[in-house]
Amino acid sequence: MRFAGIAALKDLRRRLADPLALLTWMGMPIVIGGLMGLIGGGGAAPPTVRVPLVDLDQTFMSRLVGMAGSAGPVGEFLEIETVTEEVGRRKIDDGDANALLILPRGFQEGFLREQPTTLTLIKNPSQRIMPGIIEEGLRVVVEAAFYAQRLFGEPIRQIADSVPAGATAGPPDALVASISQSINQRLRTLQTTLGPPVLSLNTPSQAADGETFNFGAIFLPSLLFMALMFTAQGVSNDIWIEKTMGTLRRTLSAPQGAGAFLAGKIAAGAVIMSAAVLVAIALGVVAFDVPLARAPLALAWATFAGAAILCYLIALQLVASTARGGQLLSMMVVFPLIMIGGSFFPFEAMPPWMQNIGRWTPNGLAVIQVKQILFGAIDTGAILLGALGIGVPAVAVFFLSVRRLKGAFATS
Known about the structure:
Layout: H1 2-16, H2 19-40, E1 49-55, H3 60-67, E2 78-82, H4 85-94, E3 99-103, H5 107-112, E4 120-123, H6 129-162, H7 173-189, H8 191-194, H9 215-236, H10 238-245, H11 247-252, H12 258-287, H13 295-319, H14 323-340, H15 352-358, H16 362-375, H17 380-411
Parallel strand pairs: 1-2, 1-3
Antiparallel strand pairs: 3-4
């Protein structure tokens, strides 16, 4: 046991001699977590789309277009201001507008009677994204007008016949009631087509109990174990460094044996990974409202899981015939595990079949439990079962690695 402690201390001193690698492993959660926080912050207001409107028609329907910028949720990001053409072009030249929309004379008559009508859209030449969005939105409106004519052409023509050209008032109330009845009858015939909707949209902006969706609660456990996986891979390569330097052969000749040496190396790796976990949990406490009381158990669990994963990766290194082969083999295992085991994409973003597989990987089991420890209900029985599922194979792999270390690996 004393020899294992000396071996661990020796490895830690070697790692401290390369502080850049340590800072890279420990800083990985901060970098990834910061990026996730920027993506999921959601605090910034959406940009406002500014569209000056030149209304040359001055009719009831053209005024409806001008009112669209203040109607319902559209008014939160769309600002339509009715101006003269001269003022509108000046706003475009000064960069105060994204695009200028001109409604021609005869706009209402053209729509009601389905006659060709040309809308003029002048885009700000110094911008690309917003004017493009406005153009595509206008195309959608034109398409909607086309299909409205296909579905409700007859009622629309009744409106056209009841409103004289150039009139600014709407149709009479009696006619509106008659047309509404006609439209309602038409909608009933389309009920099986329009309802229920073919597509439905679920947004995670609100949790089921009404609480605000916590982006960090979804991604923090994943980025924590992504950092652990990369750290474990880097530490596992150390076995080849020992062999290349010749210290491995001398160490194995000591009476304490390969088991104590390998245990010390895993213990040193666990200390390094616990430092990375501590940084990730501190980030969670500061940025993602992780309860401080849950931090010790999460630290212990993640360090245990990281040490088990390190056992697996050291075994892969010992199977390889060269250092380059060991690095390649570990990468071929680590990257698929990260992708499918909930360490790159959270399980909530995966299809069900991938979740069913990923939850049974070593890092998948660990991610599920650390998520429960940090943000859910702590289930002692589930933690013990997870520890057995990760730890028992790791112990078996450890003894197989000791046998390999004393045999073919040391003599090759």
